[in-house]
């Protein structure tokens, strides 16, 4: 079995923090539910019952076919910091220096999370754009 030799002082250095280089232009976007906050936002069962889970999976699939730079648009954008006027509470299990993103599925339906290298850690199943609510015009 192949073993990896990481020359890092801690596992945290490998995953988070300001020392992480930007993703390579050829890296495809990957997804993780490791940081999913089940106490806020929607659940998979809710989204399945409302028939929106398949739409979200289809959107994840289409993003996974793109490199990280290709994904950035008005449908997948960074908020840089935690939104102070969010309807969610900032999860304690997500690093303080996380850069927050919102991936729009359709209309108000989006996935909120943070990006490390080429991995988008999905934290919220956000049905009503509660991570970063916008003012209605």
Structure report:
The protein is α+β, with helices and mostly antiparallel strands. The chain has a single domain (28-126), classed as YaeB-like fold. Helices cover 20% and strands 21% of the residues. It has 4 helices and 5 strands; from the N terminus they run αβαααββββ. It has helices at residues 11-15, 44-49, 53-64, 68-71, and strands at residues 30-32, 76-78, 100-106, 109-116, 119-126. It has a 5-stranded mixed sheet with strand order 1-5-4-3-2, with helices on one face. The chain starts with 10 loop residues before the first helix and ends in an 11-residue tail after the last strand.
Give a quick precis of the structure.
The protein is built from 4 helices and 5 strands.
Tag the structure with descriptive keywords:
4 helices; alpha+beta; 20% helix; disordered N terminus; five-stranded mixed β-sheet; 137 residues; single chain; YaeB-like fold; globular
- The CATH architecture can be given as 2-Layer Sandwich
Q: Low-confidence parts lasting 5 or more residues at pLDDT below 50?
A: 1-16
What is the SS-derived class?
A: alpha+beta
User: What is the approximate shape?
Assistant: globular
Number of domains: 1
> Compute the gyration radius: what is it?
16 Å
How would the blueprint of this fold be written?
Elements: H1 11-15, E1 30-32, H2 44-49, H3 53-64, H4 68-71, E2 76-78, E3 100-106, E4 109-116, E5 119-126
Parallel strand pairs: 1-5
Antiparallel strand pairs: 2-3, 3-4, 4-5
């Amino acid at each position: 079995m192949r073993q990896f030799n990481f020359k890092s002082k801690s596992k945290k250095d490998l995953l988070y923090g300001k020392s992480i280089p930007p993703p390579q232009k050829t890296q495809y976007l990957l997804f993780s539910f490791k940081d999913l906050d089940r106490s806020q936002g929607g659940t998979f069962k809710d989204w399945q019952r409302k028939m929106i889970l398949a739409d979200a999976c289809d959107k994840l699939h289409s993003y996974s076919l793109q490199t990280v730079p290709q994904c950035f648009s008005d449908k997948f954008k960074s908020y840089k910091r935690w939104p102070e006027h969010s309807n969610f509470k900032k999860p304690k299990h997500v690093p303080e220096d996380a850069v927050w993103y919102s991936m729009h599925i359709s209309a108000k339906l989006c996935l909120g999370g943070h990006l490390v290298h080429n991995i988008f850690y999905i934290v919220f199943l956000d049905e009503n754009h509660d991570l970063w609510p916008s003012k209605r015009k």
